[in-house]
Amino acid sequence: MSEQIKKALHWSAFFIACLILLPFALHAESDSKNCPDLPVYRQGQIKQVYDGDTVELSDGTKVRLLGINTPEMNYRRGHPEPLAKAARRRLKELAPPGTTVSLQIDRQQHDRYGRLLAHLQLANGTNPALTLLEEGLATILIIPPNAAAAVCFTAAERQARISSTGIWGHPRYQPKTAASLTGTNRTGYHIVRGKVTRVTSSKRFYYLELNNHLTARISKRDWGEYFVDPFSPHWPGATQPQQLLNQQVLLRGWLQPHRQDSSKPLQVRLYHPAGLEWQP
């Protein structure tokens, strides 16, 4: 075969590969610019950035970014959590004071503190919350009914976790076993690994008990709306909580003592399968 034919075949293969991969690249870019795909509620101008997930607009509106949680600055309660300053600094770089942003809202507009719950969309169409997830400066926080970003945010966070980027390389964010939750490690935000050893229910809730040390509480309404259907490769869907009995799971959330009896297992409220991974 002549050298010219070899070169021609080489470049033909290159261009064919480009044509095949181009739609996927465009799709990925489109996803990153439409995550989530929600209509614009209104626009506003950034006045200040409080922390990695809260900003104030020039008209005084306080906005809590939907779908993520960043390490706390703890302005009133001591030292910032690991990488809290980095998360705030990065959001300030992405949306500095004076930046005009589009606000996208999901199904619930305000939280119990009166803050507007919204996604920010920059002029280039990107969502700064997604960037924080990709760079390991935030964790996903999906609280129904605001779940439009659950799929794309979960995928972004997973890549950061796999590569131990940002907070995922810090000891605080490594999964703990349920049995290790003792002393000062008992409360606060944790990622916990354990075996579901008991499943019970009440009129409004299902309860998953992990190794007799932690009880996860899920409302029956949330279960029926979000947990039944497949959500990701790590949540194939479960019609009944009993399917999790004797299964290994990984969950995340804010751990609290039992309200009536501190000697009972810790409790955590789960709202969405983004906070519960099934590891069969």
Protein traits:
280 residues, alpha+beta, 2 domains, seven-stranded mixed beta sheet, 14 strands, 25% helix, globular, disordered N terminus
Q: What this model shows, in words?
A:
This protein folds into two domains: 40-166, Beta Barrel (OB fold (Dihydrolipoamide Acetyltransferase, E2P)), CATH 2.40.50.90; 175-278, OB fold (Dihydrolipoamide Acetyltransferase, E2P), CATH 2.40.50. Helices cover 25% and strands 29% of the residues. It has five helices and 14 strands. The strands form three sheets. Strands 8, 9, 10, 11, 12, 13 and 14 form a seven-stranded mixed sheet that branches. A hairpin with a 4-residue loop joins strand 2 and strand 3. The longest helix is centred in the N-terminal third of the chain and has 31 residues, at 3-33. The model is unreliable at 3-30 (pLDDT under 50).
